[in-house]
Amino acid sequence: MKMYPFRVAIGFLVVFLSVILFLTTARFVPWGIWLFVWQFWPMLLVIFGIAFLIRRWKLNFLLGSSIFALIFALTGAGLWVTWKSQYFNTDQFAERNGTNVTTTMLSNELPKKIDHSDVRIIFGSSKIQLGAIDNSGSNLLYSGTHKSNFFTMNESLEMVGDKAKLTLKTSPWIKKPFASKGVNELNMDFSEKIPYSFDITTQTSDVDLNFQNLKVPKLDIDAGASNINVRFGASSSIDAKINAGASAIRLYVPKDLGIIVHSHSTLMSNNFQKFGLSKKDANFESPNLKNEKNKLNIDLSSGISRVELLPE
Do 274 and 310 touch, CB atoms closer than 8 A? Predict the structure, then answer.
């Protein structure tokens, strides 16, 4: 069989990149790996240089394809070993960068004539803790800190009528953006005086949300393989949407909330019926769903996860 080395090289390259795309979309690795892989672009010169030699030497298809397969296998293994040794080893990363942790203070006064706030949080792999401001007499809209040794925080607050729109978004320092087990922590508290709608996007993270003393009518979490704890309050009805990879999800629910759960995953284990919910069509409902004024509407999409409802 005639050998077309440049076509074969492009074919192997497409397969190689498709594998990485699958791993990122399936949330096995963070999307930041693309910038890491791009640092090795000179390998393209090596690959096409070998393709030129194979054409010049007129190797047959079997031998030429075997050479390309070996090259891409070694390249993939080398990328993985480098990624793992540099960016997944907590001790090594802390040794190199532990002294460079930066703490950013975040706060803003509660604007006048405001009756709601949207909060958008966009993070990499991280630790996120949200709660209520301890002092109920405080006149702050939010207060907290961001600590990291490889991410900077971008804080944006705008007013649209009687609504505040807060965005907290991290951007990587280009020299060391991929240390998934480095320091990247957000600890924020919010006012008890107004309701908040939270939209949280993160990668593999520890997420701890304490909304017992907050009014949170809407919660949207989009996470990778994470450890997620949410404590809901009973002061209002709540629409909660959680989309996660292979995760451990614990939802603490007050007894005064009627509960309905919509699950879109057949691989998810749960304790819904043990908690007292009954299966009705494709949903799970609590016995007090119709009688309670405030309701918790949960929409779940996840990979192979464990979801638990726990009493608050």
Answer: no
